[in-house]
Specification:
2 domains; mainly alpha; 64% helix; two-stranded antiparallel ribbon; 5% strand; Multidrug-efflux Transporter Regulator, Chain: A, Domain 2; elongated; 118 residues
Length: 118
């Protein structure tokens, strides 16, 4: 789901257990206020909150934020559309498309194999 081409300009995620909102902002190329807004819009994004309501993001949160960023900024989804993609409603359509592509490729490969056997 995460578009590799949109991930090229982002730095690698360090091997840490928790990240502050500032670190996540730098890692994902998104301002902190946008991260706080996305927390309200995407129920999957739920960082650990500690003393003083400070947010600490886990590695999977950073990966999810990068997926959201790719959906919104590079693939042109709206907030609602990105939410659907992440919850799996859009993933069903993707799975059907993938199955059709696989069937088509398999047919083409079988034709090539038959031609090579001749």
């Amino acid at each position: 789901m995460l578009d590799a081409s949109s991930n090229d300009e982002l730095p690698p995620i360090p091997a840490k257990r928790y990240f502050t909102i500032g670190e996540v902002s730098d890692l994902c190329g998104v301002k902190p206020h946008v991260l706080r807004y996305w927390e309200q819009e995407f129920p999957q994004l739920n960082p650990v909150k500690r003393r003083g309501n400070r947010r600490y993001y886990r590695r999977q949160d950073v990966i999810l934020i990068r997926q959201i960023r790719a959906l919104l900024y590079h693939q042109g989804f709206t907030i609602g559309g990105a939410r659907q993609q992440l919850t799996g409603e859009g993933a069903k359509d993707d799975a059907n498309q993938r199955q059709q592509i696989i069937r088509q490729l398999r047919g083409e490969l079988e034709e090539v194999l038959a031609a090579l056997k001749r």
